[in-house]
Amino acid sequence: MARQLFVHVGWTTRDQRPMIGVSESSFLREFLPAEARRHSAEVIALGIVSDHLHLLLRLPLAFDVPALVKSLKGVSARLANKDEQISRSGLRWAKGYVVRSVSPRNLRPAVRYVLGQRSHHPDHAIPVR
């Protein structure tokens, strides 16, 4: 049986301000999986609300999680802020992040949790286009 490593990663916007709108969310939904693939990781689930996001990732067994998160956060903010079509007000991430391992047995509940961010945080839900 092939061994797999699953992690749940989350981070907030700076000062937990609502900086993620429709265009930022759309950009992040496209960018984050592509950037994860560039690091040999796979986004299994992605949940975004106006002030934070959650990712459920499948990683290779030997993996540099800090380097991946630094790239996901840093490059996404840099690109979003460079292009005013993506973010007019600016996208800034808070320092740090949370990462938890997820057992294969708990993968389905973790996916439901990550995908359910709109219902978990209805006051921070982003309108659907």
Give a quick rundown of the structure.
The chain has 129 residues and is α+β, with helices and mostly antiparallel strands. Helices cover 37% and strands 22% of the residues.
Strands, helices and their partners?
Layout: E1 5-12, H1 22-38, E2 42-49, E3 52-59, H2 65-82, E4 98-102, H3 107-115, H4 117-120
List keywords for this structure.
globular, 4 helices, alpha+beta, 4-stranded antiparallel β-sheet, Alpha-Beta Plaits, 4 strands
What features would you describe in this structure?
This protein is α+β, with helices and mostly antiparallel strands and 129 residues long. The protein has one domain (5-124): Alpha-Beta Plaits, CATH 3.30.70.1290. Helix content is 37%, strand content 22%. It has helices spanning 22-38, 65-82, 107-115, 117-120, and strands at 5-12, 42-49, 52-59, 98-102. A 4-stranded antiparallel β-sheet has the order 2-3-1-4, with helices on both faces. Helix 1 (22-38) crosses helix 2. The longest helix has 18 residues, at 65-82.
Low-confidence stretches: none
Structural class, by secondary structure, is: alpha+beta
Number of helices: 4
Instruction: From the 3D structure, determine the CATH topology.
Output: Alpha-Beta Plaits
> What is the number of strand segments?
4
Q: What fraction of residues sit in β-strands?
A: 15-25%
Total of domains:
1
Return the CATH architecture: 2-Layer Sandwich
Mean pLDDT: 92
